[in-house]
Amino acid sequence: MSHVLYWPGRIYFYPLGNTSAICLTEELPPERQADVLFLGGGDPRNILYTVYADASLSNEPRKLDITCCDCEAAVLARNTLLFTLLADHCAEDRLSSIWNVFYHMMLDETSLSLLIEQCRKLVPLAESLDSWRQGPYAHIVSMCNSDTLSEIGRFWKLWLGTSNFNAKQAKRFKENFQNGMKSVQKRFEASMVVTPVRSAGPLAQVALLAVSEQFKRFWATGVTDDGSPDVKPANNLNPTFAFSLFGDEFAVHYGTDPLSSFHLAEALASSGLELSNQTGLVIPKIVLTARQQFNTWCKAVIRRVHNTSASSASLTVRMYAGEALAFCQALYSVNRPSVGHTPIFIAPWRRSVVQLDDTLYSPNAHSPAPTSFNVIDTSNLIDHVGLLNLLTVTIPLLSDSPSSTLYTEALLPAGDSPAQRILDQVCGNLSTISLLLGVVPSAYISRFSTRSNTSETMIQAILRSYTQYHERLAWKRISFGHSSDSLQEAELSFTPSQLARTLFDIYSRMFSDQDLGKQRAIMSLDNSQMAQKIQFSGIIHYTRRSFALLIAHISTRVRCDWNRVINDLKELILNDRTPMVGGNFFHEMACHLYLAGFRLPWSNPTEVQKCRSNEDPPIFRTWSAVPEVVTVVLVVPRHAIAKIQSDLSDIGTPTLQCEIQFNLNWSAFACISASFGKLEVSGEGENKVAVVMEDTAGIKGMSPLIVSFPMLSISLMVMSGGTVGLVVRPTVGTAPLVSKLGLEMCLFKALLTDERSAHVLTSAPISANDRISWEPPLVPPESDATTRRHPIHVEMDQSNTQIQSLTAHVDIVDPVGQASLASGCAVTVEQWSLNKAKIHVDKYQHIIPFPLPVDATNAKLRIARKSKYVEVVAPMILTLNVKEESNVSENFRAAFDCGIPTLWSMHRLNLDRCPSFKLSTSRKAFDWLGTHVRFMFSQRERLLRKRRAFPGPTDTFMNLKDSLYTLFTSTTGLEGPIHTEFTLWNPEEKGFYAMILVTDIRLDVGSHTVVADSWIIPGSNGIRDKLMREIAGKLFIKTDANESEAWRHLLPLLIERCRTWKHKPSCEYLVHDSIPLYPGAGSDANKVPWCSCGMGIGTGVLRERYGSVSAKYATRAAISPLFAVSYMEEIGVKTDDPVGPLERCAACGKGGVPLSVCSRCKRVKYCSKDCQVKDWKTHKKNCVMT
Fold this sequence. Notes:
Elements: E1 5-6, E2 34-39, H1 45-53, E3 64-70, H2 73-87, H3 95-103, E4 106-107, H4 109-125, H5 129-133, E5 141-143, H6 146-161, H7 167-188, H8 204-221, E6 236-237, H9 265-268, H10 279-306, E7 315-321, H11 324-332, E8 375-377, H12 382-385, H13 387-394, E9 405-413, H14 418-426, H15 430-437, E10 439-441, H16 442-446, H17 454-462, E11 468-477, H18 484-489, E12 492-494, H19 496-510, H20 516-523, H21 527-537, H22 544-555, E13 558-559, H23 562-575, H24 586-595, H25 605-615, E14 629-636, H26 638-642, H27 645-650, E15 655-662, E16 665-669, E17 673-682, E18 689-694, E19 705-712, H28 713-717, E20 723-728, H29 738-741, E21 746-751, E22 758-761, E23 766-767, E24 792-796, E25 803-811, H30 815-822, E26 827-833, E27 836-841, E28 844-849, E29 860-864, E30 869-875, E31 894-897, E32 900-903, H31 927-934, H32 939-947, H33 956-972, E33 981-985, E34 992-1004, E35 1009-1018, H34 1021-1030, E36 1035-1038, H35 1041-1056, H36 1068-1072, H37 1100-1105, H38 1108-1113, E37 1115-1119, E38 1156-1157, E39 1165-1166, H39 1169-1179
Parallel strand pairs: 2-3, 2-8, 3-7, 5-7, 8-9, 12-13, 12-24, 18-23, 33-36
Antiparallel strand pairs: 1-15, 4-6, 9-11, 10-11, 14-19, 14-22, 15-16, 15-20, 17-18, 17-19, 20-21, 24-25, 25-30, 26-27, 27-28, 29-30, 31-32, 33-34, 34-35, 35-37, 38-39
């Protein structure tokens, strides 16, 4: 395991999700099959909602193949139970009982009977993989291996067994269950519960009090109450909440709430309720809405399941029970040779090795399961295993496609700045880490997001004690938009010394918990801050194996003298005096670098043999040959654990590690494997092997604890006369244990030569009957000069943390280009796109793709006319520091994926699955929408809007958001009369260049925002006059040249994101090889930026409302607010911010600009004479002289 080993004192059970459902396919074009890897996702809400909301091009739904991994088999048992219930006949008639079985802790008789009867059907099917495959549910739910099926079946048996409890068993079961519920009630009886309010999205303020009260009612009664009069009494305990990895003790997490999984905004958007205490009205609405959403999603699944067979299943859900990092490593090794030293264990505290089903996961599988995925969702696993651990194992599984997306989310400490939060996560400069890993958060480049997490900001504004901030990132490959040829050509290179220092900076951040200065800083804080910092400082994720695997991944992308890099890195680590005990992990670091594929000069076979001859270690005297790496095993007697067990469990999440001491030498090993059981050893010398007979009772049993870790044999030789021990890692949080364990924090230690407790083996012990599954090493690839054409050299700044420039080397191989270069023709470079430059040598041109955005206009050229190459040294411009920019059109990115348009930072959505809502007649009840749309603006932009009447730099993003603000507020009448017809108009051109007709305002519930269901019509000469006759009363939105160009790039994306039609073979995008069409044409109405493939499709609503012209030329679009990125800019409201509506031009709607009042009525204001003239036809009816 690359993660540290936590003591398993308290394991919470998460039967239900704590965030609302999302659509897993929202980044995929509708033509693409979805191969989804869902890690740690918990309950199936996201699968249910994806099946419902997924966009398809016809009646034939997209094929969904979803692989679910969770370390808690009880979660998978519940999920499988749900899918089998939906697969049965008459499922729709039983949805009310199915809701109860899945979401209620207390059940009525009908629901309990349904659960027990289903378990009776499922238990025999779980006897073996063959029995499951031959059963009625195999085409819907597939098991990744026999261990998963066995574990899932074990829980089904436990649930079924409760129906046969005798009186004593039933009493104990009931008392344990009810005491667990009461403890949660007591925990929150005097406080407000805010976590579920996230699910209300933009209406969080309206729902705040109600969700808190509903949460308390749920834990008091065990049910959700929608106010229905025919609710049956629920007096039976639901066994699916009673059993987990923690055994039969009640372990349901105290934040569990059924409503958290759903989209509560739908219940409140049209309710007319104001921000006040109307809990009695809100609770029934949100409960009923949650039930209705569950029913609707389930019906979508039922239709899929009942209309497909095993050979043509459009929905396949695969189950795997085990730890996510190990599962990813096992998937990666499926098509790779199984060589290595470190076995892949199922989970921490287990000795069973991952063994996937060969009929699904082998090179010769007839119908192989996916091992490469275009969607990887990791839920909030980074809170539990660390971001870099997760990215290192998931990026190799992400398919090489522009639409492939990797999602991470986290609950971060709310007190730090957003920028600091993301830096702490990635352990370095975000641009540098992204380049090294090969993926980057899409919003980091685009500077906007169509997803909103403004509910987090609102909660923090209301409750200062709120300590967490929810952040979700979508990562994409940095090769987005590059052709396959250019991908092969681009190859990263570094100066070895710079790369070593860059890696050392990452290393220092990964292990910053060992920085004595930071520990002292925590102790100097006030009590409240100290408590929070201690809580988070005790959460440690990384071991030296984490760092070694990270470097191994980087080595697959970077061409460099890796021997020199590793040697320089070694010197930096050994000479660093910042960490308290960092040098003590050096032997562990060296071992895992070796295991990751790096050949270390001091650990080769010759050096090992030389050291053995010199040291004559007694451990290896009976060995005929000593390998470079061995495994040290320590058997810790149970009494050594028992005396401190309760203290360990009470302390939170203490970390265990091993230490070897010899004289004054002390080496620590944090990457250890552990399990409870009996160690059976056989053989001698290098032939000694060990097998663990695992104690299924685990921490609650009486068996000894067996720990093991790998170590370089040469390191062990010089310390073989010492001791090996198991210790608690010292942190601020574990300080109370010193009184019992002493300063060394040692639980147990023994001489390395004491074979009663210590063993040295050639490989790690595993459980009996296991087939070894090894982690494949990531060996740095050999450099092939024949495939390199123009590598990208990375130059770091003086701190070696930030990228200063990227240098592209281009060999001129074209004869015309060579001749022009040799003849002395001038060489120039221009910016071609955000991350591309074009070089010109007379008539020769060449486009250079860079991995990250660069400033080609300020690039330097190195020209070698005799050697026939050109180097372009371009400053890298990607940064967290956002400033005003006039040209932002390149931030709206699209690319082709096998001829299909793919979007960069704009999620797709099915407009027909987005609920529309009616506007309330009460202006106060509709305040939430104005607040939500205003959250588009960062605090910087808010202040800039306030000062915009004064000369200064132009911020096109802010102007664009202001136009969107006008569209939303005018459509809803928030700041005046309702307008639903808009034209985009540049005063420098004649007429408008695009018309927008809004037919609905909908909730984009999965992204917690709103969307304007709109239709875009070009303003070209042949259409404009016809439209003017058909549509009157338009609101003109004035855009300058830069904003007009931004709209040119944005409009095609707004159309593409809600597309339900196929692009034609003659699509203009393909003909011109460009999205948008005619980039640079700005507001030229006759150069329409979007293709004609979707014109006139589904426009019946326009034909009825306006006429045939609109219906013929309109294309549907989904217009959303463009939110500032929380880790790049401060979002929220400060007391001195201009939070109220700005005075606006009556014609174009722009605010924050100098306005002139109508000289006649003195009431209406305009930004220009052109606007006043355009509006006169409308205004003169109401213009009264004052």
